Every structure is written in structure tokens, then in C-alpha cells.
Fold this protein.
Amino acid sequence: MIARRGVIALTAALALGACASQKDLNILFKRGIKEAKRDDFAPAMKDLEQFAADACAGARPDRRCREAYLALGHCRESAGLPASAWAAFDRALALPPHDKDEAVKRDLDRAEAEVTDKLKQQADHGPVLIRYRDEVPEEYTLRSVTVSIDFQPVVTRDKNAAELHGQDFLQIYAGPLTAGQHVLVLDAVHACKTGQDAPCARSELHRAWAFDSEGHAPTTIELRGYADPGQDGKPAQPTASLTKR
């Protein structure tokens, strides 16, 4: 009986924690949207970025994530951060509902033009190094990796992409880069290995980030491919993160 009461108490505590977490998400979302509507960009970006990090990064994003990313993109654009805005619009486009995709595509086109125009105003350059590590579970095999910077591909790996799987980061690109804020887009395809017991489904991953580089200073970008755990017997879902060094 004591053990049963302990289990019940633990279950109740976990439920309360989940409710509190959902309450926090509601506060962040509603407050961020209100701040965005009154052009209070700095707090709006802070709240919406936190909401996106907590509610939109996993295999089951919150149904409000598209609206949050759209609002975040418009705030970033108004704050003079077109590369960050483009990344937010790009993420919004991938999320449902899709009835207004054409409007989001226009947002992307406008932000892309702003990124290009802003970089043309910069004269300084610095070296950029991109490193990649694929640690997606063994039931998957990496088929291809494409990396673009400022809407131009700089890396395409297909036949030998599986060599990037392991515990160490491997260099995949080095070159000069204009100082300023940039857009990096990663497209990675994972197929399923044969003879594996774990559930698996072919994955075509698309992710975009913004990052800053400085003139005459090296920038190192580390891209890490991994997988969010599957739920209810479903396959793990490949995803990726970017870290600037």
C-alpha cells in the first residue's frame, strides 16, 4: 500500500510539473505575440525564442509554433536582423497549417534580398570553417549532406556521406566569408539500414540558422546530426544543431 501511494504521489507530481510547464508555454506565447503586435521587438523576440526552444524543437512541435515563428521572423526583420528573420520564416514554412504558404514564401524572398543587400555593404572578410558530426542511431545511414551559406551551396556530400558518422567532428568546408550576419541551411538525408531491429523511417532533414562572422577573425561552425527519441514505438527522428565557436 505504501509503495502504491508512492507511485500515485510521483504520478501526481509529474502531472503537476507538466501542467506548470504548459502554463509557462502559454504565458510565453501570449506575451510574445502581444509584444510583437505593439512593436516591442526585444522582449517579443526573447519570449518567442524561448517558446520555440521549449515547444517547437522536438518530434511533436506545439500547434502554435508556426504562428510563433512567423511573429518572430517579423520582429527580427523589423529589428534589422534579416538573416535571423529568414531562418524563422523558413521554419514556419515547414510547419502546419499550410493554407498561407505563399505569403510566407514572399516573406522569405524579401528577407533573402535584405540579407544579400546588407552583406554587399560590408568590406571586411574572415575565414570560416565548417565541421560536421553525424551521431544519428545505428539503424540509420547518412546518404547525403548539403550545406548552403547565404543561399549558395558550399558543401555537397553524397557517395561518401556515411564517413561523417562517428564521435568526432570532421571538417567539410573552409573558405572566406564576408563579415556580417549569414544564413546557413543544412539538408541531410538518412536512409534505413537493413537487418536492424529498431524502427526506422527514411528522413529528409532541412534546417536553417543565422550566425555572425567578424572581419579578419576566424569563425568555426559545428553541425551536429542526432535524433530525437521516437515515442509509442515510432522511429527516432533525425534532427540537427548548430554551434558557433
